[in-house]
Amino acid sequence: MKFKMLVAALAFIATSGCVYADSETISKVDQLGQTQVTQPLLARQSAEMVAGKTELAMSGNLKKPLKQALSPDIEHAKAAIIVSNILTRFEYDKKPLDTKMSNAVFDEYLKMLDPSKMFFLKSDIDKFSAVKDQMNDMLLSGRLQIPFDIFEIYRDRVEQRFDHVLSTLKDDFDFSVDESFELDRKKSKWVETNEEINDLWGKRVKNDYLRLKLAGSTDEKIKETLRKRYINNRNQILRMGNEDVSEMFINAYASSTDPHTNYYSPSSAKNFDVQISLSVEGIGAVLQKRDEYGQIREVVPGGPAAKSGQIQPGDRIVAVGQGPKGPMEDVVDWRLDDIVNKIRGKRGSTVRVEIIPAEGGVDGKQKVVTLVRQKVTLEDQAAKYKIIEIENDGQIQKIAIITIPSFYEDFDARARGENSYKSVTRDVRVILEELNKANIDGVVLDMRNNGGGSLTEAANLSGLFIGGPNPIVQVRTAEGSVSNVRSIKTDMVWDKPLAVLVNRISASASEIFAGAMQDYGRGVVLGDPTWGKGSVQTIRGLNEFLRRPQDEELGSLKWTIQKFFRVNGSSTQVKGIVPDIIFPTMFDAKEMGESSYENAMPWSAIDPASYKPVGDLKPTIVNLSRLHKDRVSESGSWALMKDELDYARKLSDQKVISLNYQTRLEERENMEAQRKDFEARRKELGESDIGNFRLDDGLQAGEGNLKEELANEKKRKDNIDIAAKEAANIVADMVNLK
């Protein structure tokens, strides 16, 4: 699921022609505003009811945030109406918002809320099913109270489940019983009784407890870790507001039409802009949740926080104030997104952050740091390179490995005409020019885990290796019109040997680039078959769909408008890019990739574009494959990587796990023996101590030792792994075969 979200988040962006909501939709939106003035269209609970809930929430012996009464705002109704109008009229694979779609939206909404079926009872689902056929009418009319009511019941169930398990932590657990816990409950039935669901949660707690116990934690520490974890998990749901609920419900519809169509609330739209542009206006700090605090995880070099010298990784944020003298607002136990929204702001404005310095511990003396927000570039997520020397037939070849995490582009800065706007093509051009000056012999472009990004950048980056303007990809509209997306006018910046390293998570723009290098005979593609995303999305603010844009923020819609095809006519949809030389993989193609979506578009093909390959690598690939096979057959490092990946996949395929301590201890001892064997082989081979297989420590994000985590992250970033080394070997072979 995490990887699927990554691919959706960094989906392929394109510009499209002007489209507008139709007159009927605009009339509905206008009437919403008029109705709200005279008679509330969407019922709200009174302030007294909210206060009553608040008092009840705070009266318990476990700390809880205010539990707000939820109801949709007019802006949410407008967003639902506009999104349903646009998707039924302008999406590539248009689907009517009928009863069939209504049922799909209903199922998707429940899946989003309770994917493991650990909160709702079957009686809840039976109750909700009465409105299963009405989801379409709710979206078309903007009347979203029922989805909000469903969420409130979900929120109550979350509170009940976590309060129950928190009450059990004072008891001792019996790990001598032979029972098991089902890790993957997607296909399980809804539980019917409270006794059954309490038993299910009891097994989950026992598994969480066992994981920490087997990792060496004491009983006292385990209970404290789980207590903080469950309180935090509960409180994050209790803190969800109207915007979160409306976004989730509208997305239940959006993702039911196409896996890569998404609605972004105003807050989420800002986060998406940061992802695609690699820039943000703020203080230059990466945050994580640590217990009830927002914690500084990283300080971005060159940003206001770094320049101040007063903020360090590990510092906990307790309050935020706006301007030089604005009141400090307590942000303890807030959701991370809400803390981030308070800290971000307009460039040049002042923000004051009250922190507990890391070195003082939780009870340390607090201090207030005043910072002026600036535009911060997230260079850590930009293209970078390393040089590796390969000895080949007595000669030394220098091969550069350029890591490209995404196809980023600062659209807004480009639109404003800024000369130095951030983009992956600009960054890689600078790198290639440096490599040419340094007489580097070949390049590996590492696009593993690259989920995509900008269409323009996919084309322009290709131009650095084949020249331009040249057709890079064909796009077809729903009406069947086909056009070419070309690279910019440029000379070939890099004309030496090239390989593209991909994996199952490489998607969209990564697949276009890799496919273009194959079709033009320009580079060799290495790794495992890619994701298989062959569709084009555009993103626009919902206000833009109205002929009379209004002041309120309605969020943005990213929807599928075209299907793309390689210049050879083949789609990458579902099938992805098949590498010229296949590497071992840790991913299960059935669980990961476009083919795992139930509503994915099918593969298809069109006529090839008119293009002229710059080379023919087919004979070379035959020789490269032979040399590769000969080399890895004698490589202890390659065998180690393969064994680690196979073992990790074997463990991940385990869907049911024992809750018997002795059984789990024996399994842990076997895993520890295997880990030691891998470690000894790694040490003997002179490989990095960062392996593909690590023992489970039972911790979730934000619960571990931050210094150790950051040190390990740095190791991973600095390390050249076995697959990347072999990719460099293959490029060195290309140099010799020229």
From TrEMBL:
Q: Which residues form a coiled coil?
A: 661-688
Name all PDZ domain ranges.
273-344
Its lineage opens with:
Bacteria, Pseudomonadati, Pseudomonadota, Betaproteobacteria, Burkholderiales
| Keyword Signal in record | yes
Q: What is this protein called?
A: Carboxy terminal-processing peptidase
Arranged from A to Z, the UniProt key words for this protein are: Coiled coil, Hydrolase, Protease, Serine protease, Signal
What family is it from?
Belongs to the peptidase S41A family.
Q: Which Gene3D superfamilies match?
A: 2-enoyl-CoA Hydratase, Chain A, domain 1, 2.30.42.10
Which residues does UniProt assign to the signal peptide?
A: 1-21
